[in-house]
Design goal:
The complex is a heterodimer of chains A (307) and B (354).
Chain A: E1 7-17, E2 23-34, E3 39-43, H1 50-57, E4 65-70, E5 73-74, H2 81-90, E6 91-94, H3 108-119, H4 125-138, H5 155-167, E7 173-177, H6 185-202, E8 205-210, H7 213-219, E9 222-227, E10 230-236, H8 237-242, H9 247-254, H10 261-266, H11 274-277, E11 285-290, E12 293-297, H12 299-306
Parallel strand pairs in A: 3-8, 3-9, 6-7, 7-8
Antiparallel strand pairs in A: 1-2, 1-4, 4-5, 9-10, 10-12, 11-12
Helix pairs in contact in A: 3-4, 3-5, 5-6
Chain B: E1 5-18, E2 21-34, E3 38-42, H1 49-57, E4 64-76, E5 81-85, H2 91-97, E6 103-106, H3 110-113, H4 120-131, H5 136-149, H6 155-158, H7 168-180, E7 186-190, H8 198-215, E8 218-223, H9 226-232, E9 235-240, E10 243-249, H10 250-255, H11 260-268, E11 317-318, E12 324-325, H12 341-353
Parallel strand pairs in B: 3-8, 3-9, 6-7, 7-8
Antiparallel strand pairs in B: 1-2, 1-4, 4-5, 9-10, 10-12, 11-12
Classes of the chains: A alpha/beta (307), B alpha/beta (354).
């Protein structure tokens, strides 16, 4: 792809100092790019730093090192007021728990229009109402939902409100942090389809953070695999699933239960233990496998895994 | 063969008294479980899976009333074998004779089901000391044995750990060890792996399977993940709106599903082998159980619904000796409706993949 990426993360490090002796390296030297209109999936087990990356990008944390370039502008560290304003309009987040992230004392219409209110993005109350009605229709809710409160909606409907709130400013990048994990299987499918449809229409990019690999495969164009704060492998959907190189990726893929009893009954997931594997993530460099497929490995490890 | 059932639930109905009115959470559930068998109960949240499990354990909340039904459990002591109705026993009796000793349960979230102020060793020993006349030393040895059984290395050191010092997967292993402490005959796992990562999930499921092979206990899994079901179960019950809509052997449910709801569940599963653009999504939401349901509860979301579905609730139709489904589509007079083509292809692929 020759396009310029919408988001470029370079050598991002995010450390949390617990006390004088002990620092948690939640994210250690992670680099990736997201191109306009594509979905980048970040997967890994809990504690691998996937949510931290999402939060660092949207400036909820102050990164320890590294640069984050969004739409040609450096956005880590101190930035100007205009850049901040630009960022707040063009980067939005969808959170994990749809009940916890909606203000229970606000009506749906006010929750959704909060961004509009702050940025004064309308000229008359009618225009505001029209915009809210428009986005509600887009996410598959009816106009009467606008005057309800969050507790009057079901889980799937609440998550739709979360999506509507993120999309009303027409952002260039949406960070979806485990946005389907709290939902039922049948509702998950509804929400994933909705996100795909909206992306087709608005051409915005998604950073999709999740631990459910099968869903990530469905929605993402490219995938990054994280473990213990290191980006171990990244590549297109197909490259990762048909040709996983890193042993951790292999174990992750083999652990997905396949809904097919004949296959699943006899299958044993590959186990992977960082401590006993003898791999030191810090030593490895990102090596090109093919196309856009990179893996973190030393020369020797790379030969061992690919042979 | 003498009847080999360990648990038989017949026509169980449970209501909940709430401020909004009476919720009919369970509306006539029948479940048979044989010895040594693994059964899965699948359904969306709010379909009544957990309530069924709690009824078996006698730990329903205070606002629940059992409208009808029996839960027959084959108590198995060394000396005698008796059949008891768990719903007729009072709570104290159940607590003394059944919970832990005969039926044990593994809950969803290992952090909230462990006591943060007790070492895990103490928590494992607690049950044995309560139910049997073990000396402290014997109980300690038993706990060590259990920790090794569930695959915790360095068991002696771990006995003194507190729950917060363990990782999520380790904690769930401890919960399983506690459940197994008193040699139960039946283990109920209520979403045992939902709070865990896929890699740990696979390990926990393999562990339970392993233990089952060693000890021959029966297991009930409650889950909404069909992938998990495929891995562990012998029999499957599909639940919807407080009723079992389809039951059968695992192969029958996965390869020859008859109920439209089961079709929808199978279609909605993301498939790693396809590059379909869209995922099948079941339209609508589960019914509100506050209202009396007329006809088939699934009819409003069912694209194959017949006229009769709106008036009359379908009975269980027999497909084979082990396979039953509650849908009017199986009635001899019903129009012949095949399952959606996309699902047919998927099942075809699944069969070939085997």
């Amino acid at each position: 792809m020759s396009e310029t990426p919408i988001l470029e993360v370079n050598g991002l490090k995010q450390y949390f100092k617990v006390n004088r002796k002990y620092t948690v390296k939640a994210v250690d030297d992670v680099s990736f790019k997201i191109y306009p209109g594509e979905t980048y999936g970040l997967v890994g087990e809990s504690g691998s730093g996937k949510s931290t990356i999402g939060r660092a990008i949207i400036r909820l944390y102050n990164p320890t090192a590294g640069s984050i370039v969004f739409d040609g502008k450096e956005i880590s560290g101190r930035i100007s007021k205009e850049d901040n304003q630009f960022l707040r309009i063009n980067m939005q987040m969808i959170f994990q728990d749809p009940m916890a992230c909606l203000n229970p004392r606000q009506k749906i219409s006010d929750i959704i229009a909060q961004g509009l209110d702050i940025h004064k993005a309308y000229r008359s109350p009618q225009e505001r109402a029209a915009k809210v009605a428009g986005i509600l229709a887009k996410v598959g809710l009816s106009p009467e939902h606008a005057s309800r409160y969050p507790h009057q909606l079901s889980g799937g409907q609440r998550q739709r409100v979360g999506i509507a709130r993120a999309l009303i400013m027409n952002p260039k990048l949406v960070i979806a942090d485990e946005c389907i994990s709290a939902l039922d299987v049948s509702i998950q499918a509804q929400v994933v389809n909705l996100m795909k449809d909206i992306q087709e229409e608005t051409k915005s990019s998604y950073l999709f953070v999740a631990h459910d690999l099968s869903m990530v495969k469905y929605i993402s164009d490219r995938i990054g695999v994280l473990h213990l704060g290191h980006l171990l492998e990244t590549g297109t959907n197909e490259e990762i699933f048909s040709n996983p190189v890193h042993p951790y990726t292999k174990s992750l893929i083999s652990a997905i239960p396949i809904p097919n009893p004949k296959v699943e009954r006899g299958r044993v997931a590959e186990s992977y233990d960082y401590k006993t594997s003898g791999i030191d993530y810090g030593k490895g460099k990102m090596k090109l496998v093919s196309g856009q497929h990179y893996v973190r490995a030393t020369e020797q490890e790379y030969l061992e895994w690919t042979s | 063969m003498q009847d080999n059932y360990i648990l038989r639930i017949k026509d169980l109905s449970i209501d909940f008294q709430t401020t909004a009115g009476i919720v009919h959470a369970i509306r006539g559930v029948d479940i048979d479980l044989e010895r040594g068998e693994t059964m899965a109960i699948v359904g969306e949240s709010g379909s009544g899976k957990s309530v069924t499990a709690k009824a078996i354990m006698g730990i329903l909340s205070n606002n629940a009333t059992v409208r009808s039904g029996v839960v027959e459990f084959h108590m198995d002591n060394e000396t005698s074998e008796t059949v008891v109705d768990l719903l007729k026993m009072d709570k104290k009796e159940i607590r003394q004779n059944i919970n832990g000793k005969q039926i044990a349960m593994v809950f969803q979230d290992p952090m909230t089901s462990l006591n943060p102020l007790m070492t895990i060793g103490k928590q494992i020993m607690e049950g044995v000391l309560w139910h049997y006349d073990y000396t402290k030393e014997a109980a300690y040895n038993r706990a060590l044995e259990l920790l090794e059984l569930v695959g915790i290395t360095d068991a002696k050191k771990r006995m003194k750990s507190y729950p917060h010092q363990l990782s999520g997967g380790m904690r769930q292993r401890v919960v399983i060890a506690i459940a197994l402490a008193c040699n139960p005959n039946l283990l109920i796992c209520d979403e045992p792996t939902t709070a865990l990562d896929v890699t740990i999930q696979a390990k926990i499921l393999e562990l339970i399977k392993d233990i089952q092979e060693k000890t021959g206990i029966s297991v009930i899994y409650i889950t909404h993940d069909l992938g998990v079901v495929a891995k562990v179960a012998d029999k499957v019950n599909v639940m919807y709106a407080g009723k079992i809509v389809e039951k059968g052997n695992i192969d029958e449910i996965f390869y020859e599903p008859k109920h439209p709801y089961t079709w929808a569940l199978l279609s909605a599963m993301p498939d790693l082998n396809t590059n379909d653009e869209r995922l099948y999504a079941l339209p609508g939401t589960p019914p509100n159980l506050l209202q009396e349901i007329k006809g088939d509860a699934f009819a409003p979301r069912n694209e194959y619904a017949l006229k009769i579905d709106k008036r009359l609730e379908p009975p269980m139709f027999k497909v084979s000796d082990t396979h039953f489904a509650a849908t009017w589509l199986l009635h001899p007079k019903a129009p012949k409706i095949a399952m959606p083509e996309a699902l047919q292809n998927k099942i075809q692929r699944m069969r070939e993949g085997a």
